[in-house]
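Form 7-S
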Amino acid sequence: MDRDQDKRRNDKRNDRPVGKAPGNPYGKAKGKPRPGGPGKPAGGPKKDGPRPSGKPNYKPSTSNSSSAPSREQPQRRRRKLNATPKGVAAQAPAWLLDTQHAPQISSSNVTEMLEKMGFTGDKTIIASLVDHLLLVRELNREINLVSRANVDSVLLQSLWESLVPVLHPAKWRRGEKVLDLGSGGGFPGLCLAIAMPEQEFLLVDSRRAKTLALTSMVNDLGLKNVSVVHERAENLASHEDVLVDNVVVRAVGVLKEVAPWAEKLLKPGGTLLVWKGPEGLREFQALDRERWGLLETLPVLPHRSVMVLEYKGAAEMKEG
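Output:
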């Protein structure tokens, strides 16, 4: 019985094709692929000299031939604009930039800040500026007028920024009418209205709660040169009877969005004042140079400035 089984096994082995592995119809035994790949000798092309041992020591090619492989150059970062303190920014009190240890709003602190700035307003104006800050702080508990983190520090910085144009009226003032677009808590429009009672100010905001707060503050401060309007900028710009000499904008949007609104609100030759950081000059590059020109850049803080833009008028107006 055992001899018959051995004979059958030998017959099966003899019937199997030479070079074929069980279950492999391609005629080659299974195993690791040859290093040279199909159609190439194993081990690749022969090289003169002994084979290197260990890790290969690659050396960068010093040839400038175009056949050398090119490496992708990393993208260059845009150069940041110079934010070195200068002008008014250099005179700012040290505590004004220290948000964690800024003093509370008081008449003495505001007076010290204005003296550092070179502001020469009388005591009545200084008292009204202090009252404005206190009113905003009080209303801010119910209405989000400014950031609620370090409120006193935010308000003192906002006052400083808002009053910078007062020191350089000849560089931006073109007439009596000034429009503050997106006035919020009254920065900069209400501060400018207090410091420049000879000017006529129009404070505009799209949120009714903020316009109600502005109206309340105007009444409490007894300001006769201020009007408050609840309207969106694009809707206000559609009214042909609303034309002003100057538009001021702080913390509203990018210049590419603000400029078309200001074009419909400004008289030709009027100015647009925008409070910007390092991004301001880059945003200005996107504007139509035939309509807008950059007159001045007034330093505010080490990282911020007021850009004074002149509206030259639309092309169709010039042709007419």
